[in-house]
Amino acid sequence: MQQPFEQFVRALRAADVPVSVAEVIDATEVIAAVGYEDRQLLKDALALTVAKSEDEKDRFEIAFELFYARTEFRDEFEAWDDPTQDQTQKDADSDCEPDGGDGGDADGSGDGDGSAQGSQGGEGSVPGMQSDLADMILAGDGEALASALEAAAVEVGAANIKVFTQRGYLARQMLDQMGMRDLERMIAALERESGEEPEEGSKLDALSRGRMQLFNEARDYMERQFELYARAAGQQFREEFLETTSMANIPPRDFDIMSRIVRRMAKKLASKYMRRHRRAKRGHLDVRRTLRRNMAHDGVPFETVWKFQEISKPSVVAICDVSGSVAASSRFLLMFLYSLNEVIARLQSFAFSSHMVEISDDLEDHAIEEAIPAILQKIGFRSTDYGQMLRDFRDEHLDSIDRRTTVIVLGDGRTNDADPEAQIMKQIYERSRRVIWLNPEPETFWGTGDSEMPRYRPYCHVAKTCNTVKQLERIIDDLLRSSVRA
Amino acid sequence: MSNSSKEIHLASVDKIIEGLGSASYVASRQIATAILIAQNLDKPILVEGSAGVGKTELALSTAALLGLPLIRMQCYEGLDESKALYEWKYGKQLLYTQVLKDKIGDVLQGAVGLRDSMTQLHQFSDVFFSEDFLEPRPLLKALQHDDGVVLLIDEIDKSDEEFEAFLLEILSAFQVTIPEIGTIKAKTPPIVFLTSNATRDLGDALKRRCLHLFIPLPDAKLEEQIIAARVPEIEARLRRKLVSFVQQLRDLDLKKLPSISETIDWARVLVLLHAEDLTPEMVRETLNVLLKFEEDIQGAHNKIPEMLRQAEKVAEHGIHAATI
Fold first, then answer.
1. Regarding predicted confidence, which is higher, A46 or A324?
2. N or C: which terminus of chain A has fewer CB atoms within 10 Å of its end residue's CB?
3. Which residues of A touch B46 (CB under 8 A)?
4. Is ipTM > 0.90 here?
5. What residue of A is the nearest CA neighbor of B196?
6. How many domains does chain A fold into?
7. Looking at the DSSP assignment, which residues form a beta bridge with residue B175?
8. What pTM was computed for the model?
9. Whole-angstrom Cα distance, residue A469 to residue A467?
10. What is the pLDDT of residue B268?
11. Shortest distance, CA A102 to any CA of chain B (angstroms)
């Protein structure tokens, strides 16, 4: 049973349930302890050992059901009641299980044993022709057929399936491996012999029904293999692609995947920076607290207390351009920031195209996925006026910036030839801790046409091209790290 | 004694469910399987789930079932090994040095010269850092027990990352290393439960060493059993209605979903108020037992009559909300 379990581990890994080698060892011990008899027990026990979060448990459940689904079809094959054979003979037949355990034997090379020969000696025998597969079908030995199928699957590398279209080809290969060609030749010979429609209950009928069933089984098997090993991999591939695609070019149908990606990234960053909010200043003794703590020991400093450094959470003001091409990037930036609420102390967000509005409340009260399109509807997709935006900001919100605030501006800096009001940018720069300007355009475009980036740039601590979610992640990582050093 | 009782009570999943049931803890199959496996593999169980689904209660009930003492350690930020594992008894050590000063003359009797005194001194064992001066904290206590204990490390996610790393030795080998003394190994491996509310992701190293049990919010059937076990005074029909109501409440868009402990509290409140039926007024007045946010209470307010009608139907026909 070792081999199937290894396959199962592969399937789990493909389904994004990371299983370490040590966990595989644990799982093997678990299997030894609970056995294979009680399916539910086995499933629960394995879930405890290899799936280590709520999401992973769900994915484990799916993978388990798919993987162990194959055991169910073993009963579906019915034995063929040979009318010419007496009962005792038939019993002897089904007692002898053809060995389908290793695929090499299944190619019908013709070492059929005595009793298998016996069953062929009956009505409609085909001289000089034999097939293990036919024997198994006639004997109704679903168990043997199932294991032959599995052995053949290993032989043709069914688990290596990558794309959906491969499954027909691989299913056929599996059947060939099992000795389908011999079976087909035998069926053809029987057809020649009887020359017409097969009679109900005849050997030919049993064989051709068996063949149909095998075809279906093999195809189902391959479909399950695809679900198990390839679907998740395909999704991973898609996600990787989306991570590095320009945010403006992501089609709306992928927004679901995107929001999952963004959430995952945000979660990773959150857990990275949530952990330590205190850091020991090495070598700085806190004399006052040391003395106090050691009063019980007569002032003899048994216990020393060291000074700590409090690590503050950053407070962020995000100003997002929601006009045309920049809107997509804004969407993901906001989604990202709002998924980080655990590690950001205060987050205020503003959106503008010509005038600026505060959108913090909209985003806090509604799910981001709904709130953002509503905001875009309301004020988005108009021509931008950065000067107006900055004037609005100065008049109403400049107070909210203090020396702990990081200001993130997301926009292309294209002012449509209006006054850029760079001096307000300077004010913001002077008041805040950091100003980060994210521009979806590549740096070579900055300053061309109506882009006022060169005039804003001196007042930014960081000005970067931010076009893909991957870049966004890096920048936010940077933001969180720099606030740790405060 | 405990070894044999362990074997009896933890022999199979059904035995465990039955045993925990007698300690009035209604366990699902998953929970029972976790305990069975933990026992077989000597592994700690990491229990996750939202607040109030009975994570801590599971440890308490297991201890009660096996008749083992429970040692509980509550985690918090800043918890360190001097509070979790051991500390030196500084006062006693100070006293010891005083005694030593007085007795040093006797010890060094007949010694001539510094070298001679030192050799004499070396003949005495170094008691200053010995187990006599060791103040055991929860973790060490758990290892020192002869018959084994149930060790509950509560809300591990609240502790620092360093502390998590420090736990690894205990969790994988049931031993601790104290630099001055050496390694102390558990006489009987304790049954360890760690609980987490998932306020932060735990490290992979920790997760790897544990069995991971996730306790979801219960379905109607299980919840009814739990209420029956915990609040036996409540009448069956009311119980069914109440459970159905809570189940429906969980389908609403709430900030904090009511969990089992809230349902139990509510059932107790209803018993105290001698309620015979759930009326909209009664529910409105007691809703703050179930819902802990003002917005949630407001949000649920006008849906109460509708949900009660549904609950009435369920109580009438004995079908669970999940199957409707």
1. A46
2. N
3. 52
4. no
5. A53
6. 4
7. B185
8. 0.68
9. 7
10. 92
11. 34
